[in-house]
Amino acid sequence: MSAVKLSLPKPAVPAPSRTTARPVERSERWLFGLGLGGIALFLALFVLLPLGMLFLRSLYDRDGAFVGLANFAAFLEAPALTRSVVNSLTLSALTTAITVPLAFLYAFCLTRTHMAGKGLFRLLAQIPLLAPSLLPAIALVYLFGNKGILRGLLMGESIYGSIGIVMGEVFYSFPHAVLILTVALSTSDARLYEAAEALGAGAWKRFATITLPGVRYGLISAVFVVFTLVVTDFGVPKVIGGSTNMLATDVYKQVVGQQNFGMGAVVGIVLLLPAGLAFVADWIGQRRQMALLSARSVPFQPRLNPVGDRLAVLFCALVGGLLLGLLGVAGFASVVTFWPYNLTPTLANYDFAQFDAAGWGSYANSLTLAAGTAVAGTAIVFTGAWLVERAPGRAVMKGTVRLMAVLPLAVPGMALGLAYIFFFNATWNPLSWLYHSMAILVLATVAHFYTVSHLTAVTALKQLDAEFEAVSASLKVPVWSTFLRVTVPLCLPAILDIAIYFFVNAMTTVSAVVFLYAPETKPASVAVLNMDDSGEVAGAAAMAMMIVLTSAAVRALHALLSRALHRRTQAWRRH
Amino acid sequence: MIRRTILLGTSALALLAAVPAASPAGAATRLTVYTALENEQLAPYKKAFEADNPGVEIEWVRDSTGVVTAKLLAEKDNPKADVVWGLAASSLMILDAQGMLMPYQPKGAGDLKAGFRDAKTPPAWVGMDAWMAAICFNTVEAEKKKLPKPTSWADLLKPEYKGQIVMPNPASSGTGFLAVSGWLQTMGADQGWGYMDRLNDNVALYTHSGSKPCKMAAAGEYPIGISIEYTGAQQKTKGAPIDVILASEGVGWEMEATAIVKGTRNAEAAKALADWAASRKANEQYVNFYQVTAHPGVTKETPNYPKNAEAAMNRTNDFAWAAANRDRILADWEKRYGAKSEPKS
Prior knowledge:
The complex is a heterodimer.
Chain A: H1 2-6, H2 26-57, H3 70-77, H4 79-112, H5 118-125, H6 134-144, H7 162-186, H8 190-198, H9 203-214, H10 216-232, H11 235-240, H12 247-257, H13 261-270, H14 273-288, H15 306-334, E1 336-338, E2 342-345, H16 361-390, H17 395-410, H18 413-424, H19 438-448, H20 450-462, H21 467-474, H22 479-490, H23 492-508, H24 524-533, H25 537-569
Antiparallel strand pairs in A: 1-2
Helix pairs in contact in A: 2-16, 2-17, 2-18, 3-13, 4-7, 4-10, 6-7, 6-15, 7-10, 7-20, 10-14, 12-13, 13-18, 14-17, 15-25, 16-19, 16-20, 16-23, 16-24, 17-20, 20-23, 21-22, 23-25, 24-25
Chain B: H1 2-22, E1 29-35, H2 39-52, E2 56-62, H3 65-74, E3 83-88, H4 89-97, E4 101-102, E5 126-138, H5 139-145, E6 165-168, H6 174-187, H7 189-202, E7 203-207, H8 212-218, E8 224-228, H9 229-237, E9 242-245, E10 253-261, H10 267-277, H11 280-286, H12 309-312, H13 319-337
Parallel strand pairs in B: 1-2, 1-3, 6-7, 6-8
Antiparallel strand pairs in B: 3-10, 4-10, 5-8, 5-9, 5-10
Helix pairs in contact in B: 4-13, 6-7
């Protein structure tokens, strides 16, 4: 709503109407309502109601007796809690403080310099996305563990604990931040820079007064996305946390270790707090955000700058090299016969049946899951984001949808999975047939990764002036036609990014599905977890590498497609 | 040429013969079987059972003891499992107390060792084999660090082992729990907790799974792992420089057992599996991994398996006590040592 208000046509332009962004036909209004209702229903069924059940369960003890807030009281008295809270907050803050500046600089190099090899660096930045978060931790153990290759570099400190967690989490969260910041940085109006230069503003001043304010919304998003990702991730601390506990892993501890669903639900709910913060930040960001790209914008063209461009290459090569290096270590681990005593190369670790009953079957399941999630997720998220941004009126409904769209980010997959058990395995639920199907894995994954996709779509949509729709409306073009023929093509790069984001996350997610998979739907990522859990680290590394190779192949295809698309649909940005 | 044709002909015949047997027009019953068996045990067990029971197909859901138990409890109102095959008896007792198991007396259960089944008639669960807590000791790393070889639980308290020991978290790992329950039952509560307090000073890490400490010891990541005796033998056979030690005081142990989940839609097939799991043939499978099985007549030498395993097992081992006190023990344990535990446990 606020976005529509703020991007009102500027006075200089003959506006179709000044009170609403666009005139709306009655039938269109009805369609908008239906669409918004559908999105709201989807998010309610797959985010809100399961979480509601989670909340309800937190009020019952393990025998199903109502105990009110007793679980919360017990939680507050648990001695390990304060330490977990402190660990979660400090380590997440530290990771954010390292990741966001790194990612910003990286995204800046990708979008605002003339450096060579941008395509390569773009791909390198996506490396961590291709792997389960267990992978960097496994690789770090091989590098810095007690028998690690580079053990000496830690100067006696142990990798098991804060150091390992932060290193692993920076790797894990980096591409998420780069994705958001690249989208935010890639659209800018060259006229602003020209004007600033003409007025004598130096490079730093232009950076501080045009670039930074322009990506403020993306920066805020990135900070919250990284922070909450780290707070809710359990893959890295699980493998390398040693005795350093985090809140997200406490959920699992309660549920799995002590079979205390009530208490697990409590910790899950405590973890929802950052979501509240994220929503407030999102809301504030919305009020301040202007549409950056009006119909008359001139795309920014980075100028040649030999020294700066070379520094950019150096920086990106360093960061990208580290990302690739960590992946290489995992690859190495997967082909060693018996680390560290027998380093003969072997492919035996890829014979998964010896470590895991599902063998290669789990890999096939992951392909199905990833494809399903990419198709369903992208369609739902983009349509949803568009409706929220562009549908007229219905402020309350949009606010609700926005809140529900931000929520999943702060819900640890483990908690979401638990919530799904409570909700979809309940005998009274007419949707209980979904339980144990591949469909519920797809839906859980879409819901779990809804937020970042939603924010990406919103960021892309915000950069399109609502004038596009206003103009087409004044030309009497139906709104869905504008959506399909203008909005979707203009946003195709972002849409593809979202699809790929869903695909690779479905390949790599463990936490969202670990409570939900059935024997015939067990995904590869769970197989990685299972193998690592039972100490078959080489097998786990091998399956993780299969996930990486698959995601990489899809990513390569995406890069080719994007380039072709870019040429066809983004030419307007180049004149 | 002729021979090849004949060969082709016979193999084609064999295929023809095999096809209807394998899938009698889609009539195969799929049994969902929850288990905490080790991964490498799943394929041979499944194959052997299905060979004897054409028309029944096993779908495994495998995780560590704590996870499988949690999953079953979470699904209490709408169970997805037909059978639990290979879960700690003390976990099955918890499920039984919740009324989640269907009592059934498998054919031939009378032949099994007396302690290896539920005392009720018909029993809610029937035992398969026993596994126990062993110390995996990496001799190469010990040499480098000048660590003496431990032979008893008491030895593990020596100050030179500080930060050198890994053990499973009893909350998630059946092996971790049997070790803790073993110490508490043989030493008594006060001394048992006192022992664990001091052991905790030497423990570097509590892992999620029971086999992982031994695999970490095998890889030299930590020189000493309190783990499963069978994993030790297996790692040693794979070439790991480890000794598998059964502590001289006697070791805690637990029983793997089979039970039918109440409300199964495949009761007949479930009973067939319960029958088979208690049979001599099944025990001949178990013995490939564990030396102590439910069937008195089934024994086998496993390479690198510690000697006299059955004699080392604690005489006092009350599963009912362990099941009834599990919550309290784990809560106490968590309060004392939880801070040191691997996150996912």
